[in-house]
Amino acid sequence: MKVDNRVAVVTGGGAGIGAALAVKLAHAGARVVVADLDSGAAAAVAEAINRASSGAAVSAGADVSATVDIQQLIRLAENEFGPVDLYFANAGITGSTGLDVSETDWDRSLDVNLRAHIRAAQLLVPGWIERGQGYFVSTSSAAGLLTQLGSATYSVTKHAAVGFAEWLNITYGDKGIRVSCLCPMGVNTKLLYSGSKSGDPLGDLATRAVTAAGDVLEPTVVADTVLEAIDDERFLILPHPEVLDMYRQKAADYDRWLRGMRRYQRSLLGDPR
User: Fold this and answer.
1) Prediction pTM value
2) Which of 87, 135, 154, 172 is catalytic?
3) Any signal peptide, and if so, which residues (predicted)?
């Protein structure tokens, strides 16, 4: 799909990958709704786009775990620009670490990292089927293909996001609906370093595991990769190509891969075993 003159909604658009996506989309001629829980950050991104880009942008504060907020984003896009062509389910949270995680923390991670995608698709896909086209981009993580040391909530919900994107692609791909799933490793965002600043040993483990596994990319590099994938209508978006090799190794010998991950965890924790 060409993004020129398309209408896009980007959640988590106030910073990081979301902000970079919004800017790149607008630069390519799209009209963008920049949404973020931090309405001020979203407004700043939209204002920068309108000053510098050939596209156009509006902003909104939104909690994408709430269906009503997603409905309002879609309505804003329709009122300002027209029907939504592309939806970027990009907002995410790191969640809690360890096994002793409260039901509330699990629910929050599930709501933001998974159910927000499901709710957006429920609102958009019927209309896209009628129009014969639409594009859903799910931001997961390499953790959704591999795992995340330290955080079960992040690992499990990102796996589920990949699974939902796969299901959407299979179920509606023959009806004009395109689906891509973004699975980067380390990206230079506040989210990446939040674990090391939390004072939580498992949070620090999560950050160090990602930063030690490969290059930490800038959000603009990731956004460029996403737009290339959309142009190709490619499902799996891997800004870190080595993730595919890791995924193949996992599938080829699951037990060996699990032993390797335990060994990697021990090395990060300074365990001499």
Assistant:
1) 0.94
2) 154
3) none
